[in-house]
Amino acid sequence: xxxxxxxxxxxxxxxxxxxxxxxxxxxxxxxxxxxxxxxxxxxxxxxxxxxxxxxxxxxxxxxxxxxxxxxxxxxxxxxxxxxxxxxxxxxxxxxxxxxxxxxxxxxxxxxxxxxxxxxxxxxxxxxxxxxxxxxxxxxxxxxxxxxxxxxxxxxxxxxxxxxxxxxxxxxxxxxxxxxxxxxxxxxxxxxxxxxxxxxxxxxxxxxxxxxxxxxxxxxxxxxxxxxxxxxxxxxxxxxxxxxxxxxxxxxxxxxxxxxxxxxxxxxxxxxxxxxxxxxxxxxxxxxxxxxxxxxxxxxxxxxxxxxxxxxxxxxxxxxxxxxxxxxxxxxxxxxxxxxxxxxxxxxxxxxxxxxxxxxxxxxxxxxxxxxxxxxxxxxxxxxxxxxxxxxxxxxxxxxxxxxxxxxxxxxxxxxxxxxxxxxxxxxxxxxxxxxxxxxxxxxxxxxxxxxxxxx
Amino acid sequence: xxxxxxxxxxxxxxxxxxxxxxxxxxxxxxxxxxxxxxxxxxxxxxxxxxxxxxxxxxxxxxxxxxxxxxxxxxxxxxxxxxxxxxxxxxxxxxxxxxxxxxxxxxxxxxxxxxxxxxxxxxxxxxxxxxxxxxxxxxxxxxxxxxxxxxxxxxxxxxxxxxxxxxxxxxxxxxxxxxxxxxxxxxxxxxxxxxxxxxxxxxxxxxxxxxxx
Lengths: 455, 212
Hints:
Structural class of chain B: alpha/beta
CATH class of the largest domain in chain A: Alpha Beta
Number of strands of chain B: 11
Distance between the termini of chain B: 63 Å
Distance between the termini of chain A: 66 Å
CATH architecture of chain B: 3-Layer(aba) Sandwich
Shape of chain A: elongated
Strand content of chain A: 25-35%
Oligomer: heterodimer
CATH superfamily of the largest domain in chain A: Reverse transcriptase/Diguanylate cyclase domain
Number of strands of chain A: 19
Number of domains of chain A: 3
CATH class of chain B: Alpha Beta
Largest interface: A-B, 53 and 55 residues
CATH superfamily of chain B: P-loop containing nucleotide triphosphate hydrolases
Helix content of chain B: 25-40%
Largest sheet of chain A: 5 strands, antiparallel
Number of helices of chain B: 8
């Protein structure tokens, strides 16, 4: 087993819309702040009033733990694109990647994919790897990216970490520091029985879990059967580009969510929530189920550029409730091209309208006008001999005098059951210009009609 | 160095022969293939078909190529056709309907846009477009080049100039059609080719023998 820990050091800040000025998140004291604020001397741990004293323009947001856990669940869904075993931590994720490294073309490749995605979604992160989940996590929260591949190397790698990183009550950590055990290696060196007597079994257990000496089972994230995610925007925006920027954060989550469910979507709803107008609902429809977030983004780009929003948008909501099974094999075969060309049909439909772009299929009916229909995408059929390539929208009356009958008659009598019965004799006819038509004589009144063109 | 070895150089073209090195899609009519540069419908460029009267076999002429392309899982996109392409007839002629799509985009801007997009995606495009000007045609030409696609444009009248690489005019002639080569790469063809396309449209009629 190999575990990848992803720690989001600034998550409590990143869930708020970014600001160009100094901004800080506070609970009892300051929890985190942006670079602007730290230049001004604001540090985590400070009281709010001290922070305000340092900067008059400081925006202080109160920590929103609900939004944080919602974001972490979203990120856990995103991580589903790599592995089905994702576990949510207090400020990050643990991914079991040992079983899927080969699928993603090696660790280096997997790490660079993860870095690229997280970067695009706009999160700060620290990655670390270790064969035991707890050691991977300790390495990540220490702030230095460390990649340990062998179990034997764990002890050396985590030895230098300070004991305060352990998830022990502060009393125990202080106690350890008092006896001079400032780093994990100091604890490991101390006699186990004495350590257990003095600090309790939970400390020994934690160290053993970190070293991979005892089992450390994790609860894995299970995605909901529908995807719903809301994202407040930094400021009310009108421009398509700003909305796309927000979508870049949400769509990878949807894509991972779908990967965890071994599924895809054919329709995604984007609700744009305005200040004062009714919500705008935009729908992205795909010709086949997909889970590629690049494809989704391309399509939304097209949709947003064509849409007219009544007023600025303050929040977006992404919803996909019709989640369809999609085997991973399908993805590898067909999903390798995430370019605009692969979305031809979707793009034609967005610009020309859904009804203007259609496929054709055959229906088993003797009446020519009822032997076909439009559909989303065509279906293969056997067809019928002796039919013209063009069918007129409606048969129109003609004079037989101008036409030379070449072939026929083919009698079609049908439809008595639905009241639209026909009784016709069909011929192939040619006019004086050499054009060939499909004509019929209506046996009920003897009139002649043209219904098709042999072209 | 002999003159033969110089002439064999692929960069040298003799005025008395058709252009070579053109990728092409067999038309399904061997006589026609012989008359076309590359031996078929040009891939990666625009072909203009001038059909003054419809119903003379203009679709039948393209059908073997359409059927073959649809069988290769390529999209066949009909942009703004004048009538409904009739599914039972196309299916019977071997076109895979699942790879066929009609885009009703009017005749102007949207239709040009749709054609260009379809070409860029590598689809086989049949388009009925109006207001042809050179700029729009060049865009289509570029689209066809980048998608390595075949583009067939139908128009009613012959215009003076067109950037299309191949321009054909089709007329009814007896039971078949006459194909005039208005423009092709290479040697000019002064006489039209008479093709019998009956076999594709009418002869499969179940009553043909009875009536004849």
